[in-house]
Structure formats: structure tokens, C-alpha cells
Amino acid sequence: MEWEIFEEKVRGFLAEVSAGNLRAVHSYKDSSCAVRVIIDGKVGFSAGKNVERVMENAKKIARISEERLHNFPNEKPAKVLGIYDKRLENITSDFIKEEYEILINSVERAKIANAYIIHSIVEVNLKNSSGADLSKKETFSSFSIETVYEDGSGFSECESRSRELEIVETAQYAERLAIGSSKATKIESGYYDLILMPNAVHQLFSNTLYPSLSAENVSKGRSLLKIGSYIGELKLIDDPTIEGGIESYFFDDEGVKARRKILVDKEVKCFYSDWKNSINFGATGNGLRAGIELPPSPMPSNVVVEIDNKADPDHALIIHNFLGSHTANPLSGDFSVECLNAELNSRAIKGAMIYGNIFEVLKRIEGYSSEEKQVECTISPAIRFKKIRVV
Amino acid sequence: MFYDIREVKVETLTINIENGVVERPKITCFHSKSFRVLKNGFWGVFEGLVSDSEGLNFAEKNAISKGNVELLEVNSSGRYELKTKIDPRDLSVEEKLDFLKEIDKSIYTKTRKLGYIESSKQFEYRDSLGNEVRYEVPRIGISIIAIAKGETLQLISKRLMKPGGWEKIEGAFELVGEINEVLPKLTNARSPPSGEMNVLMNPELAGVFIHEAFGHAVEADHVLQGASVLSGKIGEKIAGENVTIVDDPMVEEFGFYPFDDEGVKARKKTLVENGVLRSYLHSKETAKKLGGDPGNARSEGVAFPIVRMSNTYLKEGEFKFEELLEFCKNGVFLISSRGGETNPATGYFQFSAQYGYLVRDGELSDMIRDVSLSGTLDILKDVKLGNKIEFDPGFCGKAYQTVPVADGAPAVLCRAKVGGS
Questions:
Q1: Size of interface A-B (CB pairs under 8 A)
Q2: % of chain B surpassing 90 pLDDT
Q3: Both A177 and A190 in a single domain?
Q4: Domain residues for A260?
Q5: Which residues of chain A from 59 to 118 reach within 8 Å of chain B, CB to CB?
Q6: For residue B147, which phi and psi values (nearest 5 degrees)?
Q7: Same-domain pairing of A265 and A142
Q8: How far is A79 from chain B (nearest CA, A)?
Q9: CB nearest to B19's CB, from A22, A29, A220
Q10: Average pLDDT per consecutive 10 residues, chain A (391 residues; last block may be shorter)
Q11: Strand B412-419 and strand B384-385: pairing?
């Protein structure tokens, strides 16, 4: 029998702001484990609190499994900087109170409907029967805010691997969006040049483009893409080794070394893969767990979007956030999404839907129009697209 | 000082059959505890598997400030166990797999995923007022995603999820019929038209419409935050006379619970009665501030309970489906949901159908794909309702927490914006 034990300890603080008031401070401390076994070539998975019991359950469920895996990986981890801030070990709830003071002094005209500040430390130990004995400590901080002004609202968020969060900038951005959207008007249906701000790029790409670049989706007939498929005038690089990257890591959740790889350079160059699919797609170090209770599967790390040409940052429908981007078709890439915060020639817009197909839209890239920013797994500048259908 | 303690144990069995192969089957068992202390109007919270005294001590240390939180005092104690006819734990995993494989084989397309989940949640609540609650609720469900390629690559998903035992999924074969009939046509369906038009929604999609367009705006935490278009509108007419909307956690649909996560006994609440807004959904905190009945505070695991929907439904009206088609005359008939999202602060919502048909001269014509709707709550002011209500299960996300819900509605005819080519 082959085996893998993945243990995770999580601790941290969360501050909740409601209607402008600091309402609650939470702290949490939890440890859990997940076990995979391979018995007669078949994989069983279980997760819970007690490693012996979890191991027994993994063996039990392996009886009905038809999922094949030969072994578990044993690789030396990558060196990645900036993903652990030791100062978070000594953080207290008083520090969170100071962050709250910074927050309320940042927003002058709009009201803070709600906001969350989170600081956490995650420790992972991974051992397997191939000899891997790995451990890592990572820190995560995040801040999200929703502001309201008259009948407008604005949402923004930021993340960091260190103690510092861009609370002032993020709160003021959300305030600007709320004030702007309170005066929003409708626009005529038609074809408009669009600029997607980094948040909107992430919301659209993560629901329509990234699923098609998963090795598992390709192997199971859930992607239209092949190596060599033309995508557009952009480069997509999956890189978990970026210093301070939100999704950076030394090794993935199966113990495979983190490595940079070019997914798209105008055309598809490779697919991101977990250990199981590495037999056909090569090991890319993208076997990640969406939660301790879920087995690893291929997921992107930091996806860097690179575009060569610089484009006009004005005279376009500028979209900050989408509503309902998760309802897009992840297979065909078709989407029809509502603009949550948008503006045209410095005038806020409401009630506009963007309709299209990601693979057609990507062929209409005109260039980048801002500095890059990381939003969850996407590191992208604002991107300008030519003539997109707006309803 | 007020405190409460929650303890949750959840055991789940999940089986996935992907393209005919059993993949990622899993068993999980989790045990969690959460402690809340309300001191000087401020919440201190600790989550962790420690003794009660230790947990309360950690929580109190987090009560670092003064606040304006007050709670409605509620006396609510009791025990509940949702009885099953056939406890799935009495069947072997091999027996379950045989049943699932039969369903899987009946799906015509090669690219498919069948998911089975059974779970049992044991919940305990106790607070400083002496209230004590215990319940155990099992849930069970099957979901199917089927994928095929024609002119485009398309998918259809169907799911059957209920509180209860094995008996609740015995009709799961019925999910396959619609998939096998619709998917081959959907892969060659045309893109939808665009603009404002007559839209007839089937019950499943209309349920999501009620959830997104209306339900989130009556969650009283949004109201208190000034982030709901329905703030201050209790007693006002917000919808047509024919619109009555109810939230009822005790209906045995996927959003079922006997007590909420603040230990309050669940009860049916009429939110809109003949077009008039009657009530918001409340936690103990929002009920104290705004006036109203608590019982709608829910958590994912032991996270902080927030105001949520349960089984939310629009009551049926008077029209047969054929009559609604005639009223529609020209427009679209949209079927099943791919999810949605709303901004309660502005009232704007967006949700997507899995497929639909053009309606021409009161008759169904070409099939359409990848179609979305958007609009505001004002749509509810002029709707025609079908005469048969159906419920559909789903998962609702809010403030980083996901909880099971069900949405119910009859077919609804309205005027809305459709996103298309």
C-alpha cells in the first residue's frame, strides 16, 4: 500500500466591520488532516481530525475506487521568497483594532456597509510512502470592503502575504466606485471598446479561460483547447515561485516542486496539471486542494497576464467588477455578465450586460492600459478590447 | 455578558463517477466548536476544538472594544431528529455504487460526471440564558453534469438534493430523461437574442430569480448596513398583487433546518403578502434593532451565524403553462439555472439559464443557449404566475459562507433584459 498524509494547522484573526462599526473580532485555531492511500493501484481519500481514523476511512473507500495512481511524488521543494511574515505570529487583536482605525479614517463620504480584515498562518506537513517529508509555513492577509453612497455601491479587496494591507487605497477605491455609481446612467446597446480592470479580468478569465487550460479538463473532454490552439496576442504564465505572490508556494499540495511554466504564448503551450495527470501532461506542480476536505486536483497558481502593446486608457467602457461571472459557460467560454461598477468617459454606467465568447474576445485585445495588480490568482494589468457587444 | 457555544459534527460520503469511472470517492468526519461572547455590545469570537471554559476565555479576550450590538432575548430549547425511511448508513457502499452506476450508464453522452453525497450533521447549541438545542439532520443528493459537442461544447446539469434518507433519491433516474433529450439539441442551439423582452421562466429558473432578485434584499443585515434597496419599505407595496413570497425552513427541501445556528426554533415567515413587504429575515441582533422575529441566522460549519434564506418560494398563481405562453406571444422561454448573483444595495441582479426556446406567436420554436437575464426588483411589479410550484436545491454563498437552500416558484412571465448577440 502507498500512502500520503497531509496535515494542516491554521490560526489567525478576523475583524468584521458592519455599518461602519467594528462589530466583532474572531480568532481561530484548527488542525486537520487528509490521507490518500493507493491499494492495488486504486486511490482512496479521507479527511478529518484523527489521523488513524482518517487512514482507516481512506482504506475503506479505496475498495470502490477506480481512480488509478502508481505512486506519490518525492521532489525537492522550490525556494520562494516572501510568503511567510514572522511578525504575524505575534499579532494581537489590538493590531486589528489599529487597522480598523486606519479604515474608518480612509473613507469620508461613503458609508462602509461591511468590511473584513483577515490575517492567518497556515502550517503544512506532508509525508508519503515515496519518502517525501515536507513542511511549509505560509501567511495570508486580506481586506475586503463594500461601500454605499446614496443608491450606489462599490466593492474592492486586496490580499497580501505579509502583515501589511493596502487598506487606505482599497477603501478609497471602493468609495470612489460607490460615489460614481450613485449617479450612474444607462447606455445604448451596441458595440463598445472595453477596458477590463484587473478585478474584472480575474472574474472573467477564472470562469471562462482557466478551466479550459486544466490538464484534467482536457483529458476528460471538457476543454476545446489543444497544444497549439491560437488564443490571442497575450502571454499567460503560471508561476507559483513569484516572490510574495498570493498563490506562491514551495511545493504543491501533493509535494510536487513549484515551477514556472508558460501556458499560453499567443497559442497554447502547456496545461496545468496535478500528479495524476502528469503522466500525460508532464508534472507542473499544480495539484492543489480547495479545502482540507477535498482531494488535490489541477488548479492554477499565480497566472501572470502579459501583453506587449500599450493601449489608450480612455474613451472606452471601463469595467471594474462583474456580477454573475461564475454563471458563464466554463467549457465553451460563452458569457453574458452584468457590469457591477462601470464608467464611460468619466460617467458611471448601470444596467449594462457584456455578451461574448472568451476565445473570440481574446482575439480583440488592443493592449494593456494600467500597471499590473494581483487579484486572487490573476496578476494582470487592465486590458483593452476592441468592439465587444454591450446589451 | 452573553455567551453561546456551538458544536457541530459532520460526516459525509461522496462518490464521483466521471466518464463512467469511480473517481475521488471520499469519507470525511469533522468536529468543530465555536464560542461567542457579547460584552459591552461587542462580539468576541473563538473557533477551535477546546474545552468550553478555554474557548469562552479566548472569545472574551477578543471582546476588545465597545459596540452597539444588542440581542433579542429568546427562550428556545429542544431536540430534533429528522427520521429517515432508509438510513443510507444501513446500505453498503457497494450497494450504493450499483445504483449510481445504473443511473450513470443511462446518460447517453460519454463526457459526464455523476456526484453522490450523503451527510449527517449533529448540532448542539447552549447559551448563558440556559437555552439548549440538539438536532441531527441527514442530507442526501445526486448531481449530474453531462457534456457534449456539436457546433459548440455544451453542458447540462441536474440535481436532486433533499434532507432525509436513501428514499429521497430513488427517483434520480428522472434526472437523466431531460439530459438525454435536450443536450444533443443544445450543442447545435443558436445564441440568444438580446434586449428587453417578454421572458417566461420555468419554475427552477423563477426560483433562482426570487432568491437573487428579492431574497437577498430582505436579509436584515443588509438592511442595517444600508445596503438593501428594501431598507425602510416594510408595509410598502413592492410587487404586484399576485406576489406572495415565503421563507420556510421547516419544508423538507434542501434548505431545511429545525433550529437556526443561534438556537432559535425555525418557523415559516411570510415576507411579501399580496405585493406588500411584510417582514425581513432576522438574526437575534437584527430582530432587536429593527423589530421582527429571529430564526434566520445560519452558518457554514461553525462560522459566525449570518442572516440567510432557507427554502424561499413564490406562491403559485392561476395560469396554466399554455396560457402563459400565449400571454408571452413573442419572447423567450428560459429553463433551469446556471446560478446567479445580486447586489442588494442597488437591487441589480444577473442570472443565467441552462437553455431555452424562442417564443413566436405563443409557440415554442428554436432552442437557444448561454442566455442570461438581468434587471432590478421592479420586475416583480408586473408578473403573471403559473399554477404549479416546484422546488429546486442549491447552495447560496454570502460573506465567504455557503449554506444549502431551496428555491421554489411556479412558471413566471415577466419583462426583463436578456443578454445575447
A1: 248
A2: 94
A3: no
A4: 184-391
A5: 60-61, 63-67, 93-94, 97, 111, 113-114, 116
A6: -130, 140
A7: no
A8: 31
A9: A220
A10: 98 95 96 98 97 98 96 97 96 89 96 97 98 98 96 94 97 96 92 97 98 97 96 98 98 98 98 97 97 97 97 94 92 92 93 94 97 97 96 92
A11: antiparallel
**Residue B388: partners with Cβ closer than 8 Å, 6 or more residues away:** B203, B316, B410, B411
Considering only CA atoms, give the Rg of chain A. Answer: 22
Q: Are strands B331-343 and B348-360 parallel, antiparallel or unpaired?
A: antiparallel
The per-type count for chain A, helices as H runs and strands as E runs, is: 7, 20
Cβ distance A18 to B224 less than 8 Å, yes or no, reads yes
ipTM of the complex: 0.93
Domains parsed from chain B with CATH numbers: 2-170 (3.30.2290.10), 195-419 (no CATH)
The sign of the dihedral angle between the CA atoms of B326, B330, B336, B341 is negative
Q: Phi and psi at residue B174, in whole multiples of 5°?
A: -65, -25
CATH number at residue A61: 3.30.2290.10
Q: What is the domain count for chain A?
A: 2
C-alpha cell at B320: 396554466
Q: How many angstroms separate the CA atoms of B388 and B9, rounded? A: 37
CA dist A341 and A320 (Å) reads: 5
Beta pairing partners, B81: B136
Q: Are residues A36 and A158 in the same domain?
A: yes
Residue B54's CB: how many other CB atoms inside 10 A?
12
pLDDT, position B88 = 96
Is residue A124 within 8 Å of A8, Cβ to Cβ?
yes
Q: How far apart are CA A174 and CA A155, in angstroms?
A: 5
Contacts of B342 in chain A (CB under 8 A): 323
- Kindly give, in sequence order, each residue whose CB lies less than 8 Å from that of residue B161, ignoring residues fewer than 6 positions away: B117, B139, B140, B141, B142, B143, B254, B393, B404
Choose among B22, B26, B339: nearest Cβ to A326.
B339
Distance (Å, rounded) from C-alpha B31 to C-alpha B101?
31
Which helix (H) or strand (E) segment holds residue A113: the answer is strand A111-128
Cell triple for residue B224? 442595517
| Chain A hits for B46, Cβ within 8 Å | 26-29
Hey, what's the cell of B325? 405562453
Which residue of chain B is at minimal alpha-carbon distance from A51?
Answer: B29
297-326 in chain A: CB under 8 A from chain B: 297, 323-324, 326
* A45 in contact with chain B, both atoms CB, cutoff 8 A: yes
Would you say the C-alpha torsion B186, A351, B271, B211 has a positive or negative sign?
positive
Check whether residue A171 and residue A190 sit in a common domain.
no
Contact flag B194-A189 (C-beta cutoff 8 Å)? yes
Same structural domain, A62 and A29: yes
User: Residue B420's pLDDT is what?
Assistant: 75
Mean pLDDT of chain A: 96
Q: Give the domain-ending residue among A181, A203, A218.
A: A181
Closest to A226 in 3D by CA, of A167, A191, A264, A268:
A268
